[in-house]
Design brief:
It is built from 10 helices and 11 strands. It is of the alpha/beta class and 296 residues long. The strands form 3 sheets. Strands 1-11-8-7-5-6 form a 6-stranded parallel sheet. The protein has a 3-stranded parallel sheet with strand order 3-2-4, sandwiched between helices. Helix 1 packs parallel to helix 10, helix 6 crosses helix 7 and helix 6 crosses helix 10. The longest helix has 24 residues.
C-alpha cells in the first residue's frame, strides 16, 4: 500500500495563509493581534519552542511580547506578570511555556490566565467549552492541528473507530473530544499504558492517534491495514551520526508500519509544524473575540 504522506509543513502554511486576511482586517480596524509568551528558566527545548513562536508572530505581523524569567522566579511573581498581561489591551493571547520549574504549580498558573486569552486551551473554562462544543473556547493547539491534518488528507471521520493512545490534558483527552464531537462523529476509544492488550485494541482502529512520548512504541502489530495514523510523538534518541548527537523520532515505527497505512504523518514534519500554526490561529481568534466584546 502506498500511503498518503500527510505533510504538516504544507498544511501549516495553508493555515497561516488563511490567517493573513483576518489579521489585515483587524489591523484595518486599528488592532494588531498580540501574543505574550513567558518562559521561566533556561530549558533548552523550551527555548527552541519559544523562539519558534516568536518567529511565527514576526512572519505573520503579530505583536510578540516575550518574557524570559530567571529559574528562581517565584510563583507569586509569575502570577503577578500574568495579571498585568490579563489587563493589557495589546495582549490577546498568553502562554506560559510548559513545564515550569518544579517550585511553580502549573495548574495554579493556568487558573490565573484570563480564559479569553488562554490560547493554549488549558484553563478549566476552555476545557468545559471543548466538552460542551462551545466554539468560543480555545482548544489545545496540538490536537486542533491533528484535526486539520485529518481534514487535509480527506479523512471522513464520521462513523470511524478512532483510538487515541494517551490521556494527557495537552493531547489525548482534547483529541478524543474533538473526534467525538458533532463535527467529526467518530466512535472514540482512549487507550493508555494500563490498557489490556493495547496492540489488539489498536488493530481495531480506522484512525490511530499516538500521543504517549515513547519512541517507536507503535509497531506493525498495532496497525489495522488501511488505517490512518497520526503520530504526535516528538522524541530525541541518541544518534552519533548526526551533528547534534541525536535525531527526532515519533511514537510510531514509521518505516515498519507505513506500508500498512492509507495515510500517515512523518516525524519530523507532521504534527509539529501544526502546533505553532494553530497557536497563531487561536491568537487571531482571541483578538477577534476580545475586540468584538470591547465594541459592545
Amino acid at each position: 500500500m502506498n500511503p498518503i504522506l500527510i505533510n504538516g509543513k504544507e498544511v501549516a502554511q495553508q493555515v497561516r495563509a488563511g490567517l493573513i486576511s483576518q489579521i489585515q482586517e483587524l489591523k484595518d480596524r486599528g488592532v494588531t493581534p498580540g501574543l505574550a509568551v513567558i518562559l521561566v528558566g533556561k530549558d533548552p527545548a523550551s527555548q527552541v519552542y519559544v523562539g519558534s513562536k516568536v518567529k511565527a508572530c514576526a512572519e505573520l505581523g503579530l505583536k510578540s511580547f516575550h518574557y524570559e524569567l530567571p529559574e528562581e522566579t517565584t510563583q507569586d511573581e509569575l502570577i503577578a506578570l500574568i495579571h498585568r498581561l490579563n489587563a493589557d489591551p495589546e495582549v490577546h493571547g498568553i502562554l506560559v511555556q510548559s513545564p515550569p520549574p518544579r517550585h511553580i504549580d502549573e495548574s495554579a498558573v493556568i487558573l490565573n490566565i484570563d480564559p479569553r486569552k488562554d490560547v493554549d486551551g488549558f484553563h478549566p473554562v476552555n476545557v468545559a467549552k471543548l466538552v460542551l462544543e462551545d466554539e468560543t473556547g480555545f482548544v489545545p493547539c496540538t490536537p486542533l492541528g491533528c484535526m486539520e491534518l485529518l481534514k487535509s488528507a480527506g479523512v471522513a471521520t464520521a462513523g470511524m473507530h478512532a483510538v487515541v493512545i494517551g490521556r494527557s490534558m495537552i493531547v489525548g483527552k482534547p483529541m478524543a473530544h474533538l473526534l467525538l464531537g458533532k463535527k467529526s462523529n467518530a466512535t472514540v476509544t482512549i487507550a493508555h499504558s494500563r490498557t489490556t492488550d493495547l496492540p489488539g485494541l489498536c488493530r481495531t482502529a480506522d484512525i490511530l492517534v499516538a500521543a504517549v512520548g515513547r519512541p517507536a512504541m507503535v509497531t506493525r502489530d498495532f496497525i489495522k491495514p488501511g488505517a490512518v495514523v497520526i503520530d504526535v510523538g516528538i522524541n530525541r534518541i541518541p544518534d552519533a551520526t548526526r551533528p547534534r548527537g541525536y535525531r527526532i523520532v515519533g511514537d510510531v515505527d514509521f518505516d515498519g508500519v507505513k506500508d500498512l497505512c492509507s495515510a500517515i504523518t512523518p516525524v519530523p514534519g507532521g504534527v509539529g509544524p501544526m502546533t505553532i500554526a494553530m497557536l497563531m490561529a487561536n491568537t487571531v481568534k482571541a483578538c477577534r473575540q476580545l475586540t468584538q466584546e470591547a465594541a459592545h
